From TrEMBL:
Membrane-related topology note: Multi-pass membrane protein
Record protein name field: Major facilitator superfamily (MFS) profile domain-containing protein
Keywords: Membrane, Sugar transport, Transmembrane, Transmembrane helix, Transport
Gene3D superfamilies per the UniProt record, alphabetical: MFS general substrate transporter like domains
Organism: Urochloa decumbens
Domain of life, source organism: Eukaryota
Family per similarity comment: Belongs to the major facilitator superfamily. Organophosphate:Pi antiporter (OPA) (TC 2.A.1.4) family.
């Protein structure tokens, strides 16, 4: 039997699917390459937060009373373009060659990041140039997320421990932030332009590796994923689930008959509005709107906050503030893994997300109140804040998006995955654009006001998941009583 055509335009394996025993090696390669790819996207987003202090001090038009406002407007230029383009990017990723689209997006992102760094060497002070470069960067980076989620979904969409796998894999976000912060801060003393050029080089190099080595779907490597369901109707309308090479034996059909049945099951790309109507998509999307607002406020403003708030009576340098901010992302790595593991253990994504969101409120209050006492307090409380803030953000953008994009309502249509993930992350990115923009204005009134905004946002995120969490609890209790 020939392998079914891959849903993203990859070549069909000649002569049939290879045995599933070779799958492990390819899985590791796909996880590693997509992990590095998306980490590099986030690394290229960190320089603006690292150089904010320098720009506000001595680089017009970001100096003066309106300097922080303009820095916030730069953030929203990138994030609004990213959010709006994300919806189209998901639609495109469901129809394009994922390897080529992802590689091209990475190379274009490198060019946009390098253009921002060039402003330093060319002595550019026009706000319009910075805004245009940020918009261009947002548009091309929007293709990254739906591509990597679709690729990982192709390989792990039916994994039993999807939450744990995705939790570990999604630490690329925090790892990328850490790498970007360290690279940008390390070369800041040589001129802020280098803080953009170093991450640009990294993402460009990895983009070339993606174009050469990425295998976007198992069938492109002549493999068939064991456990990938193909649903057919048996006699009497009974649904029969067939797995791997046992399909031929179970049906007793020859290759041509089975291929005919398989052909009727090849998925079509799901429509945008149709994807919005899938169960659970809208609540999780709007929850992510507020969760990502909080996460991206820290992403873009935490080094600036550290620089302008004394720790143990002393103000840190721009470089030290940038490096210290990676503690938040270190907490995020562990938080994302923990959220995925917990959600797999209890089988409840919404309950896990609500739990982390609830605990993030006291974590932020304590960090704001006691983080300035000493460096030890600051590091420990910042780590705790990152742990709880990034946990649900990580879970929703990966395991939840994959769950919703492969749910029974669409009969495992893998071509819905990029569209669903783009809807969820695109909606979240609108919130991500709003948070840094509001921070640029609200911070002039004091940082207590900023933290109040973050707590209100978390509370709204919880509200959108309350009904789903309740349904999960009721289902679990009902199942347990029946057993």
């Amino acid at each position: 039997m020939e392998a079914a055509a891959p849903p993203h335009g990859g070549p069909r394996a000649a002569g049939g699917a290879a045995p599933a025993r070779g799958l492990g090696r390819h899985e590791y390669a796909v996880l590693a390459l997509t992990f590095a790819s998306y980490a590099s996207f986030h690394a290229s987003r960190k320089p603006p937060s690292i150089v904010k202090g320098v720009l506000s001090a001595d680089w017009p038009p970001f100096t003066g009373a309106r300097g922080t406002h303009r820095l916030g407007e730069l953030d929203v230029a990138f994030l609004s373009a990213y959010a709006l383009a994300m919806f189209a990017a998901g639609h495109l990723a469901d129809r394009a060659d994922l390897r080529r689209l992802l590689g091209a997006a990475m190379l274009a992102s490198a060019a946009a990041c390098a253009a921002l760094g060039a402003a330093y060497f060319l002595d550019v002070h026009a706000l319009a140039f910075f805004a245009a470069a940020q918009v261009a960067s947002g548009v091309v980076q929007s293709a990254g997320w739906p591509c990597v989620v679709a690729v990982v979904g192709n390989w792990f969409g039916h994994a039993s421990k999807r939450g744990t796998i995705m939790g570990v894999w999604n630490s690329h976000t925090s790892v990328g932030n850490i790498v970007g912060s360290v690279l940008a801060a390390a070369v800041l003393e040589f001129g802020w332009g280098w803080s953009f050029l170093m991450p640009a080089f990294v993402i460009a190099a990895l983009g070339v590796l993606v174009l050469v080595f990425l295998v976007a779907h198992p069938s492109e490597a002549g493999l068939e994923v064991q456990g990938m369901e193909v649903e057919m109707n048996g006699d009497g309308g009974e649904e029969v689930e067939l797995l791997g090479e046992d399909k031929k034996e179970a049906q007793g059909n020859d290759d041509d008959e089975l291929e005919l049945e398989m052909g009727s099951q090849l998925p079509r790309a799901i429509g945008f509005l149709e994807a919005w109507r899938l169960p659970g998509v809208a609540p999780f999307a709007f929850c992510l709107f507020f969760s990502k607002l909080v996460a991206y406020t820290f992403l873009y403003w935490l080094p600036f906050y550290i620089r302008n708030n004394a720790v143990a009576g002393q103000f840190l340098s721009h470089k030290a503030s940038g490096i210290l901010s990676i503690v938040f992302d270190m907490g995020g790595v562990l938080g994302g893994i923990s959220a995925g593991l917990l959600s797999d253990t209890i089988g409840a994504r919404a309950v896990t997300s609500v739990l982390f969101l609830l605990l993030s409120i006291p974590a932020l209050i304590v960090y704001r109140t006691y983080g300035s006492i000493s460096m030890h307090h600051n590091i420990g409380l910042m780590f705790l804040s990152g742990y709880f803030v990034n946990g649900p953000y990580s879970l929703i953008t990966t395991a939840v998006a994959t769950d919703l994009g492969t749910q029974d309502a669409i009969k495992g249509n893998s071509r819905a995955l990029a569209t669903v993930s783009a809807i969820i992350d695109g909606t979240g990115s609108v919130g991500a654009a709003l948070g840094p923009l509001l921070t640029g204005y609200i911070s002039t009134r004091g940082w207590n006001s900023v933290f109040f905004m973050l707590i209100v946002s978390i509370s709204l995120a919880i509200m959108f998941l309350i009904r789903l969490a309740k349904d999960e609890i009721v289902t679990k209790l009902s199942t347990r009583s029946q057993e």
